[in-house]
Amino acid sequence: MGFSLSPLAQQNGFRLEAFDTVGSTNAVALERAQEGDAGRLWIVSKKQESGRGRRGRAWATSHGNLAASLLLTGNFELKTAATLGFVAGLSLADALDAVCPQAAISVGVDGVGKSDLRIELKWPNDVLINKAKLSGILLESTLLPDGRFAVVVGIGVNVVAYPEDVPYPATSLKQLGADCDAETLFLALSDAWQENSRIWDEGRGLSEIRKRWLKRAAGIGSEVAVRVDGSVLRGIFETIDEDCRFVIRDNDGERVKIAAGDVHFGAVASASAG
User: Fold this and answer.
1) Spatial contact of 170 and 111, defined as CB atoms under 8 Å apart
2) pTM of the model
3) Tens digits of per-residue pLDDT, 179-199?
4) Which of 6, 134, 141, 228 could cysteine-pair with 191, CB 3.0–4.6 Å?
């Protein structure tokens, strides 16, 4: 089976460009934007050889994993477009809920299945299963000749394999026993995006997206360390605010709002965020 869009995505004018192997789906999407593509274009592949993670980190995937990037153009501000990462996280969680056996994976903070596995969203842009990273999301933008911005939402999912040389727990759908391939997952993802982006409504529905995200949030009430511009802030993760900034109660009892940073929970937070 090859990659395909859901019927609803097709009805809403989304298009698809699929590769068996690609350097970076985000890079291809940015190229299409500069070439004048109108957006609503998914770039997908089962193998990515020179992808990028957060803060410019190199990222490659095994064949059979999912690399998907969505090119969007519009008149929304970049500050608003940045919240599309939360739309992406919710959409992937909904897609996993749709295609993975519930006996293996339960969704939500209170979900309990036979294996007691949970899908959670880690601020700002990770999807976890049982505290291990399954997916990362990366947003990039480019200035168009007409002065508008194009935004690319990149989503990488460990379907058949996960990196073992990383300083955090990671997992894959195969490791968890879920019988799902990249094509099936993308079909569900392209469908789930329709509902969550409809709610987001170019930022007008961000408050509802925030509520939905918090229901799946990892680590609320837990000790956390956040690395911000070379320094480490420690405290208790309380919530995300109306602008989706990370809010902690620091060791002095003050509420601190963080717009960008690397978040570490549990034992890593207690020791070091490096």
Assistant:
1) no
2) 0.90
3) 899 999 999 999 999 999 999
4) 6
pLDDT, tens digit (0-9, with 9 covering 90-100), for 190-223: 999 999 999 999 999 999 999 999 999 999 999 9
Cis peptide before 124 (omega within 30 of 0): yes
Estimate to the nearest angstrom the gap between the alpha carbon of 79 and the chain centroid.
Answer: 17
Helix H, strand E, coil C: the string for the chain is: CCCCCCHHHHHCCCEEEEECCECCHHHHHHHHHHCCCCCCEEEEECCECCEECHHHCEECCCECEEEEEEEEEECCCHHHHCCHHHHHHHHHHHHHHHHCCCCCCEECCCCCCCCCCEEEEECCCEEEECCEEEEEEEEEEEECCCCCEEEEEEEEECCCCCCCCCCCCECCCCCCCCCCCHHHHHHHHHHHHHHHHHHHHHHCCHHHHHHHHHHCECCCCCEEEEEECCEEEEEEEEEECCCCCEEEEECCCCEEEECCCEEEEHHHHHHCCC
**Contacts of 157 by beta carbon, 8 Å cutoff, 6+ apart:** 65, 66, 68, 92, 127, 134, 135, 173, 182, 185
- Whose CA is closest to 190, among 64, 126, 65, 95? 95
- Domains of the chain in start order, with CATH, are 7-215 (3.30.930.10), 223-271 (2.30.30.100)
User: CA 18, CA 28: separation in Å to the nearest integer?
Assistant: 11
- What are 32's two structure tokens? 């299409």
Which amino acid appears at position 238 of this protein? E
Sign of CA dihedral 5, 9, 10, 13: negative
Neighbours of 7 (CB within 10 A): 11
Contact 58, 163 (CB under 8 A): no
